[in-house]
């Protein structure tokens, strides 16, 4: 069975890569900077989006593609912030793929978008395997999940440009050692930026916003010397 499954999986990933490349060309033509936001369920993706949108409000035109197995709850939360949002329900699928993103883009006014955030399905495995055409992968790890996750789910750490260690306000109530997370993540990806944040209190958020600001400035989407904060 293994000899049969390996070629099938390879073909699926290769087909997805072709679709992702088409997505990337659309993003480049429209001048849109795109991140693929990944984490396990409950790590704080939507809370991060809400606080980030609020910080950039009036400065950057943001759109969000929301991926969930069911419901439109998160998309409704994001739309309430005054930005374009499209919901993708995978009906049991554990990740978004290039084809899903192509379909979702048809519902967005790309001419009115500078920064597109794709919130992937909550899962630490499958989303890391599928390129969506994004410029950067960003992952969130909650301190409540423990400091062993880089050892258990290495691919997501290896492929992400940024690791956000969230819910640091809960550190006194956990056995999590953030220094171990940093050390293990850097062993997997020496170029990865690591920011310790709390979406609830805003602690550490300036560093994350600074990284986003630099990326948007590189793409000409944020005025030089101006700050969203």
Name some characteristics of this structure.
229 residues; alpha/beta; Rossmann fold; globular; disordered C terminus
Characterise this structure:
The protein is an alpha/beta fold and about 230 residues long. It has one domain (about 1-220): P-loop containing nucleotide triphosphate hydrolases (Rossmann fold), CATH 3.40.50.300. The chain is built from eight helices and seven strands. It has helices at about 1-30, 45-55, 75-80, 100-105, 150, 155-160, 180-190, 205-220, and strands spanning about 35-40, 60-70, 85-90, 115-120, 135-140, 160-165, 195. Strands 3-2-4-1-5-6-7 form a seven-stranded parallel beta sheet, with helices on both faces. Helix 7 (about 180-190) links the parallel strand 6 (about 160-165) and strand 7 (about 195). The chain is globular and about 45 Å long.
Number of strands: 7
**Count of the separate structural domains:** 1
Low-pLDDT residue spans: 224-229
At the first level of CATH, what is the class? Alpha Beta
CATH superfamily: P-loop containing nucleotide triphosphate hydrolases
What's the gyration radius in Å? Answer: 17 Å
Strand order of the largest sheet: 3-2-4-1-5-6-7
State the helical fraction. 25-40%
Task: Fill in the CATH topology.
Answer: Rossmann fold
Shape: globular
* β-sheet strand percentage: 15-25%
Number of helical stretches of at least 4 residues: 8
Largest sheet: 7 strands, parallel
Cα(first) to Cα(last) distance is 55 Å
Task: Indicate the mean pLDDT.
Answer: 91
The helix/strand class is alpha/beta
The CATH architecture can be given as: 3-Layer(aba) Sandwich
State the order of secondary-structure elements, H for helix, E for strand: HEHEHEHEEHHEHEH
């Amino acid at each position: 069975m293994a000899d049969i499954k390996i070629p099938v999986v390879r073909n699926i990933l290769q087909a997805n890569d072709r679709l992702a490349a088409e997505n990337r060309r659309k993003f480049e033509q429209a001048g849109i900077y795109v991140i693929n936001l990944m984490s396990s369920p409950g790590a704080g993706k939507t809370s991060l989006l809400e606080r980030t949108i609020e910080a950039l409000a009036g400065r950057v035109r943001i759109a969000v593609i929301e991926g969930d197995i069911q419901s439109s709850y998160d998309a409704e939360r994001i739309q309430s912030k005054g930005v374009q949002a499209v919901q993708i329900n995978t009906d049991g699928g554990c990740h978004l793929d290039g084809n899903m993103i192509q379909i979702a883009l048809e519902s967005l006014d790309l001419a009115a978008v500078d920064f597109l955030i794709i919130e992937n399905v909550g899962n630490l495995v499958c989303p890391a395997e599928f390129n969506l055409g994004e410029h950067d992968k960003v992952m969130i790890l909650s301190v409540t999940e423990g400091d062993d996750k880089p050892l258990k789910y290495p691919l997501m750490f290896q492929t992400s440009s940024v690791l956000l260690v969230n819910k640091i306000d809960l550190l006194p109530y956990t056995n999590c050692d953030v220094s171990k997370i940093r050390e293990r993540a850097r062993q997997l990806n020496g170029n990865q930026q690591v920011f310790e944040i709390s979406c609830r209190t805003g602690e550490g958020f300036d560093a994350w916003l600074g990284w986003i600001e630099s990326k948007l400035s590189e793409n000409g989407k944020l005025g030089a010397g101006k700050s969203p904060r």
